[in-house]
Amino acid sequence: MIELIDLTKKFKQNFAVKNLNMFIEKGEIVGLLGPNGAGKSTAISMLSSLVEPTSGDVQFENKSILKNPSSFRKIVGMVPQEIALYEDLTAEENLQFFGRIYQLRGKKLSKKVDEVLEQIGLTDRRKDIVKKFSGGMKRRLNIGVAMLHDPEMLIMDEPTVGIDPQSRNYILDTVKRLNAERQMTVLYTSHYMEEVEFLCDRIYIMDKGNLIAAGTKEEIKQIISSEKTVSIKAEILKHDFIQALEENPLINRVTVGEKEVTILVPKDANVFSEVIKLAETNGMELTSVDNKTPTLEDVFLHLTGRALRD
Prior knowledge:
Order of helices and strands: EEEHEEHEHHHEHEHEEHEHEEHEH
Protein name: ABC transporter ATP-binding protein
Radius of gyration: 23 Å
Number of helices: 11
Number of strands: 14
Distance between the termini: 32 Å
Keywords: ATP-binding, Nucleotide-binding, Transport
CATH superfamily of the largest domain: P-loop containing nucleotide triphosphate hydrolases
CATH architecture of the largest domain: 3-Layer(aba) Sandwich
GO molecular function, one term: ATP hydrolysis activity
């Protein structure tokens, strides 16, 4: 359905995106991941025809959208990272306004506004001023705006940032439902790995403007199939213990949490006795040491050296 071919965007001497190649099949939910500054938003802006690339092409059904963006814009809905609503208008008035931009009029517009309000769960708040809405309700209305013209594809740029868990779950369930019921194609970026695990069929990972991994969730997890993850938990994690782990030649990576240290080691390495010995040497009591199944977060850290929220 969509293909990005050697897509590149350069600002002066700096590459925001470099030779990006991606494809999205009809009916898929595809995740685009990367730490801050990876180039995700620039890539999305080029894909949605809002920003012209320095070089490369974006094709929709084998035709370049750079030469004829208007036909592509008719079939795509964009949910931006920043909320794009008129806060002094009601939810209904916002939808009517944006519906007219999509060339909807009369009974067709009224019917579509009713339908979208039902889909995003805001029918009973249709007459309320948007400035009084919670962050989650604004995000839902933002998605409603993008759905007014029955798009074949939704591009969602971190649609759950800064909202409550209930609204976040509602949005995730809405995306799943739209995909299942309408075969809607979705490109989804997020700072929450669990959202991508829940939603996406395939995943692309970017870092510093480059594509560094692509595949299904299981395929991407296989990137570190020669390694295993070990979780070390303690009530108090001492600095000397962590430093000793980082200096140990058996250990490939150390990730420190509040009460947990996660280490990445070769699959055949037996580090349990070594970890316990280091804990005893540093006067630290462990609560558990366990092998973990590799997660997308582990792969992401392995590839980028940074957590997704960094």
